[in-house]
Design goal:
328 residues; mainly beta; 2 domains; Jelly Rolls; 6-stranded antiparallel beta sheet
């Protein structure tokens, strides 16, 4: 009786240890640039809990997955096309079944890049109005994180915008602080109605005029690496079809930010220009893929430095191993 009891206890303990091991997230280290700039060599990411169940999950667009490449190595790529879809790269954007797919702010933060800081134009406007201005200009898909790639042919990026961090010290008599952002010929107005820190993002993205504002918490640690301020929202507050015809040139739109408050009321801490990822077709010109009911198309976030579905073609669902969560 005693021996059986001990054996049964040991079996229960072993089963419990096995269950914990199966539930424990897996860790993966990044050793290439294909998912840059969001993931750089040396970064670590994890799967979710119960990683063994990932083979039964239905992948969602833009999720990052560990997959088995054609040569058997394990790599991380992003889900671009879902089973049964027709996926195309058109003018640097991703289109599915003929419709351009619009990224949300959080996803833009993962996939986009910072172009540069924007300095204020101290001579423009009245004393209580401050301006940050970028006339229509050329932005290329270069990469500071990959100096060895500087010899490659750079291409112009037309999806760009501004990201600002604003501190509202107190509200004026009007009851709100207004920040306006000009994107091309459109003007977006954001009003902050409480003291605190805020992110304001606006620009041209995936055939749309987009804008969003969100509070920036002061007590939480910084989020994962991003070209936007921390803790980006999942959705845009404004997302409408780009109001002008597609430009024949490939310049980034005219961008400007105007703060209509004096320094005692609100302060703009920083303004940066961001650009979206510029998707590139395969080297042989292939830019459209028709997926079967059991296939997915995967792409890297750094097209110039990624070997992915453009070379491999659509991948069978059994090649997808584990869904990757955000970096810890």
């Amino acid at each position: 009786m005693t021996v059986r009891g001990r054996a049964g206890t040991a079996a229960i303990v072993l089963l419990g240890i096995g269950a914990v091991c199966l539930a424990w997230p897996l860790r993966f280290q990044i050793d290439g640039l294909s998912m840059a700039p969001g993931l750089l060599p040396g970064d670590e990411v994890t799967s979710g809990v119960l990683p063994a169940l990932d083979r039964f999950r239905r992948p969602q667009r833009f999720e990052r997955w560990v997959l088995s490449a054609g040569d058997g190595t394990r790599v991380i790529k992003r889900i671009a096309g879902l089973a049964g879809e027709t996926v195309a790269i058109v003018g640097g954007d991703l289109a599915v079944n003929g419709e351009t797919i619009l990224k949300g702010p959080r996803l833009l933060g993962e996939m986009g890049s910072v172009v540069s800081a924007v300095r204020p134009d101290v001579t423009a406007g009245a004393a209580t109005t401050r301006h940050w201005v970028l006339p229509a200009h050329e932005v290329l898909d270069d990469a500071e994180f990959a100096p060895q790639e500087r010899s490659r042919l750079l291409l112009p990026v037309h999806d760009c915008g501004l990201a600002a961090e604003v501190v509202v010290h107190r509200l004026p008599a009007t009851g709100s602080v207004r920040i306006r952002v000009r994107v091309g010929d459109s003007l977006v107005s954001c009003r902050m109605r409480a003291a605190g820190r805020y992110a304001i993002v606006a620009g041209r993205l995936d055939g749309h005029l987009v804008a969003a504002a969100w509070p920036l918490p002061t007590s939480l640690p910084a989020g994962p690496r991003s070209c936007l301020p921390d803790h980006a929202a999942d959705n845009w507050n404004l997302a409408i079809p780009w109001p002008q015809p597609a430009p024949e040139d490939t310049l980034a739109p005219h961008l400007a930010l105007i703060c209509e408050a004096d320094g005692s009321t609100a302060a703009v801490e920083s303004v940066t220009e961001w650009r979206d990822v510029l998707h590139r077709p395969a080297a042989d010109g292939t830019g459209i893929w028709k997926l079967r009911a059991d296939e997915y198309l995967v792409l890297g976030d750094f097209p110039a430095g990624s070997i992915d579905g453009r070379q491999w073609g659509p991948m069978h669902h059994t090649a997808l191993r584990h869904r990757v969560m955000s970096p810890p």
